[in-house]
């Protein structure tokens, strides 16, 4: 007796890597709109060179959807060809909205899913849509994310800290209130290898860029930046109570220069005592 074929995963089951990636991409680069009488649509517009990813989204979606291309002038190019994937189905839109894709403007309000989801695939989707992977002008490997969402920015930083042990404290830039989160060198390599694993769903150009980071070798003589010190209230108390910087450095196992900078900030009111 023939074994029954395994059933297809439920639409937008975020424990499935492809759906987790797709949802991250949609949160960053999709637009969900609604009108009266339950009408509305989901639209994603990207450069035509990434049209293959829209075909993958169409394949993963068990509802009618369409893909078209358009060419127009932009502020960056006289002629720019983009690809647009459009989905109208109310059932699909409702599912996406319930998972955390808001209707209308969403850049500051999106958050990582509150259900079980594949973390690295979700983050790769967000970075494919709103991030960059490659080499800096100085030839250093990097991976970055530009986002207006505090929740998404913090989540990436927490994931990177757990994966590669690097701490990031994010801050909106003064010009447009956006977070620009950047990882370079070995940290970027570790993140890229984890997020862009073999066979994963991704934009081809970013997968190729991520693969290229594995070839980077730290130049001889390049200094290795020491890890960021996470000062605690107890450490601050020891620092302020020590009779000399040498005593503080020995007790805290940090350099005298790091202790000097921290003590100066504390005594001049530039850094509050940790809670």
Description:
With 275 residues, the chain is an alpha+beta fold. Helix content is 40%, strand content 17%. The protein has 10 helices and 7 strands. The strands form 2 sheets. It has a 4-stranded antiparallel sheet. β1 (30-34) and β2 (40-47) form a beta hairpin. α1 (17-29) runs parallel beside α4 (119-130), α8 packs antiparallel against α9 and α9 (245-252) packs across α10 (256-267).
The largest pleated sheet is described as: 4 strands, antiparallel
**Multimeric state of these chains?**
single chain
Q: Treating each run of at least 4 consecutive H or I residues as one helix, how many helices? A: 10
**SS-based class:** alpha+beta
Let me know the average pLDDT: 88
- Helix and strand sequence: HEEHEEHHEEHEHHHHH
Strand content: 15-25%
**End-to-end Cα distance:** 66 Å
Which stretches of 5+ consecutive residues score pLDDT under 50?
none
Q: For the CA atoms, what is the radius of gyration?
A: 23 Å
Give the number of DSSP strands. 7
What is the 3D form?
A: elongated
The strand order across the widest sheet is 1-2-4-3
User: What proportion of the residues is helical, as a percent range?
Assistant: 25-40%
Task: Tag the structure with descriptive keywords.
40% helix; alpha+beta; 10 helices; 4-stranded antiparallel beta sheet
Task: Provide the fold topology.
Blueprint: H1 17-29, E1 30-34, E2 40-47, H2 51-60, E3 65-72, E4 80-87, H3 90-99, H4 119-130, E5 131-135, E6 141-147, H5 150-164, E7 179-184, H6 185-195, H7 204-212, H8 233-241, H9 245-252, H10 256-267
Antiparallel strand pairs: 1-2, 2-4, 3-4, 5-6, 6-7
Helix pairs in contact: 1-4, 8-9, 9-10
